[in-house]
Amino acid sequence: MRVRRRRRGRREAGEQRTPEGPRAPRTAVDYPQSSVDNAAIGAHGIAESAARMIVHDRHYQTVWLEGDAVVLIDQLALPHSFAIKRCATYRETAEAIRGMLVRGAGAIGAAAGYGLAQAALQAPDAGWPTFARALAEARQHLEATRPTAQNLFYATRRVFLAATGAAPEVAAARHSARLAAQQIAAEDAAACASIGAAGAHLIGEGATVLTHCNAGWLAFVDWGTALAPVYAAVRRGARPFVLVDETRPRCQGSSLTAWELAHEGVPHAVIADNAAGYYMQRGEVQVVIVGADRIAANGDVANKIGTYEKAVVARDNGVPFYVAAPLTTIDPACSSGRDIPIEERPAEELTTMAGLTESGAVQRIRLTHSPARNPAFDVTPARLITGLITPHGIFPATAAGVAAALTAGAATP
Question: Is 222 a catalytic residue?
Fold first, then answer.
């Protein structure tokens, strides 16, 4: 994704452009639930040349591999500064995932895949049994970081199988692990571009889109999911407006989604999480698009806490509610949302908050001394979802729809 050119070095405090406020109420737009011609969506959707993050005149992906080091954008530094984190070992990569320096389904998956490849590259060359044990330990360590994100488990399994499939040649296993991790990242970017192509028609001229958390290119390798149709619609000449839920407690909406949209030049405004219903009730939202961390076989969706509430309010107000995700987010072994493990994050994320002082320093303050509970995700029942926007088109959020999406993916070269 393209970030507008800015002067070199870190941005000064408060430099980010102030977005426009919400527009006046407009007539609701009728959107088809699943009318996209799925067969017409190409394998790569929008041309890859358009999918480029440019920061300080350089193209970035969210995470990549340099030698045997995993390198990623430090999302904890945003929106106040742009910084790069270099993880020298797979344990450092795992801690970056656990600590949410890198977050978002696709980015977590790519980072975990690179982390396991990193472990393969650094494992001792003392024969196959020793190498295989080291690889298995690294996989277990990486998989313990974020239990809800399906892309993480998809990536570690794929890299592990690629490496062990080269047994007993350690050198070949190292090469296969690196190649598999690189393929996962490349496929993630291509899938997100196709999601943009599949969902762009849902966003009419001047439409207001509401989104929750961050499912833009910072959450994936490039393009993103929920924001990909917005970016694609803008490139086709549309002028949408985006309402950005702040997304407490970590504020991924106000700190990450708003940062992306501001640099992309997309008109937007940050709103309190509890204000979404207000704007939907006033007819100021034409479509809701969110991402997903895991999709069950029956179409239930686990996503950032607060997503379920948005779906309920959208249904009550007749607003289409779409979930955008690559097929790697689908867990066919998970029969329904009841089977999705929900991560409980530290209470400190809720009882404290960090912000920028007038002097430009980042400072954390305490909001309460009371105990807190902090589930990171909730599950939106399939019945509340208008459709699943995938790289292969839009499918119903049903068992048949999920199966059809997976079949379409399997049939694509």
Answer: no
